[in-house]
Amino acid sequence: MSLSLETATDLVAKIKAGEITSQDLVRDCLERIAQTDGVVKAWAHLDEAHALAQAKALDEARTNGKPMGPLHGIPVGIKDIIDTADMPTEYGASAFAGRQPLADATLVAKLREAGAVILGKNVTTEFTFLSPGPTTNPHNPAHTPGGSSSGSAAAVAAGHVPLAVGSQTGGSVIRPASFCGVIGLKPSQGMISRAGTLETSESLDQIGVFGRTLQDVAMLTDALSGHDAADGMTYARAKPNLSAGALAEAPLEPNFVWFDLPFEDRLDDDAREGLAELREVLGDQVEPFPLPESLGNIIDHHRVIHQYELRRHLDQAYAREPNPYFLEVKQNALDPSDEEYGHSLAAREAARSFFAELSHDFDAILTPAATGQAPLGLEHTGDSIFCILWTFCGLPSLTLPILEGADGLPIGVQLVAGLEEDDRLCRTAQWLLNFLDQS
Most buried of 83, 280, 286, 318 (most Cβ within 10 A)? Predict the structure, then answer.
């Protein structure tokens, strides 16, 4: 099997044991990219010589007995909205072609500290929410990979890299992970610093990761987590240990809750049938629950917060970097009032309180990750409706590639846990995977 298709967890162990080198792994990834990226188009920037130079330095550090981090020698793809001092960051927009940051984003610095090789920058939807990029779905290039973290999800699914990093303001990690058949994880808001990443909404923007196993995404999230004074959303207290959660045995069979969401009519038949079958297999472990009326208009509140903060961010960005593109985007954004914005922020706090109480009785929410399999065509990245509620509240969520659509394309199943209960979420997800393997 190609090294690039092995799990990141196994590859770290092999590199540290001297069974393979980081250069071996990077060469294998680059070879696979050369073979398939002409169709997949997952990469916005790739410098083979620079990637191999990073790998060589890490191999020399291991040979010389230097300390090795938890991701030592592992290639990682980075969404092209995340600043890198040694690579351009262009936001998927031609208006920013050649934009070269002066410093790494905090999460990139953490990756380097953990020993990762920053292989390159992955394609993003323009400015994270405008025109889709050229990336195709690795399972069928006629279908979208999802967005906005399209290149990151597709790169992992295509075997270009074991791990990748993206971001989510609505459904930009969970949806492409579902469409591409990989595991996507968006940890609790405040776990991973956003300093040095494109900001569209201070309240909603969150970092997420992609991998092929639960242990892999847990390991990457643990390496990225931490307080950062440059991002006021991060917090200076202990963080959940996701790797420990993924390895832990559930003390009892988990309890799931299923919400009757007001937009379930958007589900495709294959997703609806697959989820119904899963609920039937889990039996009494899944409790149906009506969504409180107070949460019925969360989609509208999400839109208000996003648009209100986007307009103000664009003004600030233009003051720092007078690119007319910022003003062009602002002209097309809605302009909610201060009163609407305040009302939506209050609605978010009320929703968070509701889910905090709910987490006392349930291990996870079982819910769709997307409306179904990846839609045909590349003009649209799919519907994020089944992600917005959880993103709005900052809750940890992940998608598991459990179901299959009518055309043989993957469909993810989403699990959501209480705020800062990411380790519990990973434990529950691993229990579900084991349970289905044995069923």
Answer: 83
